[in-house]
Amino acid sequence: MARARYVCAACGAVSPRWQGRCDSCGEWNTLQEDAASSAPVALRTGRGRAIELVPLSGDAADLPRTLTGISELDRVIGGGFVPGSALLVGGDPGIGKSTILIQAAAALARAGRRVIYVSGEEAIGQIRLRAERLGLRDAPVELAAETHVEDILATLAAGPAVDLVILDSIQTLWTDLAESAPGTVSQVRTSAQALIRFAKTSGTAIVLVGHVTKDGQIAGPRVVEHMVDAVLYFEGDTGHHFRVLRAVKNRFGPASEIGVFEMTDAGLTEVPNPSLLFIGGRDSASPGSAIFAGMEGTRPLLVEIQALVAETSLGTPRRSVVGWDPSRLAMILAVLEARCGMRFGQHDVYLNVAGGLRLAEPAADLAVAAALVSSRAGIATPKETVYFGEVSLSGAVRPVAQAAARLREAERLGFTQAVVPGGGREGMRSTLALHEVTTLAGIVASIAAESGG
């Protein structure tokens, strides 16, 4: 008789008993009952076959790639699909996962590749309607509406070799090897294992779509993240017209790479110059705005950081952040108070990354501090100026990586000066006027000097 165990839907940790909070990741109400599967026959009997061992030294052949023709997508996955790879594409419902994948499937099919699109949620008629709306009805993509993993694998193995298989979504699939309902951790994990095994043995690239609900009730794709070769997440807000596809894991290319798309009536279109999208329409004469020269993977990106510091009548001032780490904002405010003498205790602070982009770089510290100081003092930051640098608890500004690429992007977009950390001039050849600062006090002084200009 199988012994019951409990698996965390967020991180995959196993617990012998149910509890409200996962000891591994700290998430609440994520443990789900899972019948412990028996060990494979080879493990129970101690029998197995000897495998061939090869030396570490030797030729490393370049990985073959299958380009989709969608340059932003190819950029994120590392230069095209790798045969035999497994990718997971996640994101909120309605963010555009199915749209970009049907566009990629149509592009590959038109290039002579065999592509199969299997949907477990939509009927074939619904997929055809979407393809017709996107102008892809003539693409020779093969469709199926099926959720049984064994039937899907039998279909893939019966016909000619398949170059790409898209399965939408992994939560709807079920296999005879697991007795639980579709969408549970055991079904998601077992189904993904069978599909990934087929990909590795056949050389077919497989894309698994994972839906992430906003309330976090079904977090099955988190278990699959450890099994696949690449994990891509769609970011964005339905209130904005652009979407960001971010690689959070990639065994065949750089992680943290992003691709930027714009949602239009014709589907998702590429944005070749996302910096103009994120800084377009800014009011350079308004206080509380600073341009951050950041890096997303290997791509330099300029984005506007907006801050609003307003007096409050509340006992506890508000701290609202969109697109950045709230704890890091608290740190910057504390450093400004302790090291620069600026008081925020009687003020509400609102911080926003324009365009809905989410930043995780410590290099944004200096731009955030500049926006806060600008709003608090009511003085606009210097025109056509970019900022980047990491702020320490002592108030010192520390150099960051890839400064030359950040400056080149700012120079290309017409900026004339940059505020950079002191001591990091090596390798920063640029026509921009560089203003080095070693402490946050230098930022306060430079913005205060604008009032006299």
Q: Could you explain the architecture of this structure?
A:
The chain has 453 residues and is an alpha/beta fold. It folds into 3 domains: 1-38; 66-272, 3-Layer(aba) Sandwich (Rossmann fold), CATH 3.40.50.300; 277-450, 2-Layer Sandwich (Ribosomal Protein S5, domain 2). Helices cover 27% and strands 25% of the residues. It has 12 helices and 21 strands. The protein has helices at 41-45, 71-76, 97-110, 124-133, 149-158, 185-202, 221-224, 274-279, 326-340, 365-377, 403-412, 440-450, and strands at residues 4-8, 14-15, 31-35, 86-91, 115-119, 142-145, 164-168, 205-211, 230-235, 242-250, 258-264, 267-270, 289-296, 299-311, 319-322, 347-353, 385-387, 390-391, 397-398, 417-421, 433-437. Strands 6-5-7-8-4-9-10-11-12 form a 9-stranded mixed sheet. Strands 15-16-14-13-17-20-21 form a 7-stranded mixed sheet. Helix 10 (365-377) packs across helix 12. The N and C termini lie far apart (81 Å). Residues 36-44 and 215-219 have low confidence and may be disordered.
Structural class: alpha/beta
The residue-averaged pLDDT reads: 87
Strand content: 25-35%
- The number of distinct helices, counting runs of at least 4 residues, comes to 12
| Backbone CA Rg | 26 Å
Whole-number count of domains: 3
